[in-house]
Amino acid sequence: MVPSRRHDSIYQTRAGGNAEAFFRARFWLRLFAQFSIALWAVSLTTFCAFVLHLDLSTTGFLYLTIVVITALCCGFGQATLTSLIAVGCLDYFIVPPVFSFDIGDSNNLVALATFEFCALIVSQLSTREKRHALEAKQQRNSMEKLYEVSRRTLQLDLHLPPGPQLVGLIRESFQLQYVALFDEALGRCDSSGNASGDEEDRAQVAYLEGIHRNDARAGIWERVLHADHRLTGGLYLRGKLDPLTADALASVTAIALERCGSYEKENQAEAARQSEQMRTAVLDALAHAFKTPLTAIRIASAGLLEIGNLSKPQFELANLIDEQSIQLNDLATRLLRTAKLDTSGSRLEPEQVLVSGLIAAVLSDQAGRLDLHPVEVAIPDSTLTMQCDRGLLATIVGQFVDNAAKYSPPGTPIRVLAEESHSQVLISVHNEGVPIRLEDRQRIFERFYRCPETEDAVSGTGIGLSLARKAAEAHHGHVWVISSESEGTTFYVSLPQSEA
Predict the structure, then answer these.
(1) Fold exhibited by the domain 175-346
(2) pTM of the predicted model, to two decimals?
């Protein structure tokens, strides 16, 4: 038959009561044994002094030695009793007249005062030394446990959440009653032990309030976890600890959480890198696979248009095939350029480029897209040159111009500016199209990302701007965009004027 909870509590109460009575009896038995030894030492000294006819000073010194040893080993109480007995024996057996008491004798009072003073000093020093030894032992034990916790945190399973592992480890190592940990990165709270009241939320409360709390009487310690001057979580401990150990546990826990977080970020970065490599390989393969049939389609459509004698519907269909094949060929070319820039072994082909001439060539190539937009070009220094890969720079400027033509209303101007600024060549393309939201101004340079406002209104692939960013980074430069409702949208590219 399984005992009920009531019976369990009764058994526990009885067991606790028996243990308390045992320790109390053991304490008094130890005191009696210590006093018995001191009494035996005084008796033996008295007997020897009486038989050997030792003088007062020698016997008093022997008694003082016994009192000092008793105070050192047992404390002031036992030393006081030993002093009284020693003075009584000294007066009755040693000081003349023998076998009589003279309580008022000045020698007895001086001896008693001397014994008591020495007992007090020695017992205080002994108590202080024992307390320091106990504290040193506790600190040594805490350091050993901290070392064990630190060592075992290096053995955590990084594939599992760190919280449950850490709280169990801390509670097991320090024999605490309850441990709770809030991890800000994962947004979860883990605990180990039996919680009472609102203790389950105290770790999160400590993190939110950002302050440490100590309650040594209740054995409660709340700590905020820091890493790189930022809050990463909260730790709640209930048990026998000291403030320094609680601080050290908080530091060890914060380091363990940071290590697990770094491992997770590293895994994500590695997965992203592998995914990007696979995507680049697929794009490269697709682009090469598209090139051959696209060439055949363009040749066939161009041949049909050259033959002539086509009806109007036939001419329109052949012309549509030719236009779409040109667009597909341009897309395949972009994919190939992107794959080339993603390859770590890709190399630039730098040459001295006249910026005004390159911009004029790009605008000439984009003439068909710019029919509905007046184009304004401003280059203060017509002789401005730079060392760069001509094809990649043309790709960047061409993409900016293409975006300006697609995303701005017909009839609005497109402004191209090129100038030198602090050993950099700054090229900008401005249009008056739909403003780009602040949260999208970095993401539009990611591959395949398109703004939700224009995704359905204008056709596109989301590759062009990512290619422009890759080309700029290949030159150790960078691209960015500034956009507002009143000023319009301006894309910028800044490249070193000379080859790095």
Answers:
(1) Beta-Lactamase (3.30.450)
(2) 0.47
